[in-house]
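S.,

Sequence below, as promised.
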Amino acid sequence: MSTSLIKKTTSTEQDIPPLEEMPITKHLVILRKHLFKIVGLLVILFFCLLPFANKNYQLMSEPLRAQLPITSSMIATDVTATFMAPFKLNFFVALMIAMPYIIYQLWSFVKPALYKAEKSLAVGLLLGSISLFYIGVTFAYMVALPSILHFFISVAPETVAPMTDINSYLSFCLKLFLVFGLTFEIPIITLVLIMIGLVSTAQLVEKRRFIIVGCFFVSMFVTPPDALSMIMLAIPMWMLFELGLFLGKIFEKRKSVTE
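The prediction came back faster than expected:
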């Protein structure tokens, strides 16, 4: 019985062609299956969260409503805005919840092409990137957004009553969340560049002052046009770069020991 089982297993493994010998159409078919799973989960989450769309928008608008004067409120300048703004936010929330599953499906597609050592490293990098993205979005909502809103409302002229359109506010928040979420990926990006040998920690240390200036330069373009927003993004970018540099030094030390 055991001999027949071994023969059956061997014949099954021989029927599966190596990954590099698979035609491009086979890769596309496999990728399509993973994409269908991703879209299916997004659709399910979207409709499950739809009854809470208005409550989710109230939660999103809480930092702004806390800063507005008593006589001011949010407004809708378009007839469809009262429906479309919570609708867009509902999709964003579904996407955020599904992000680990999306990364897992993409990882399942790429995993067969990796060696065993690469798989173990990739798992850690994927988990780290997901966690850092969530931390970045949380930091934007809990710290950056209230501070930025307080600044803009406090500098408004006394004769102007701030009333923000709900669509404009949503676009502003989603852009801010995306910027901070991607910014918090800097340690992972820095570590990957060091791991693949594109740069070394010595080169990064040598160019540190230019990188710090670059952090402020980039934040100047991706944040609202005020100094507070720029500083609140540039300083975390710098600190996250230092974290990636520290992890890169640990990786280089371990690599030199194994060699």
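Residues 250 and 256 are 10 Å apart (CA to CA).

Coffee later?
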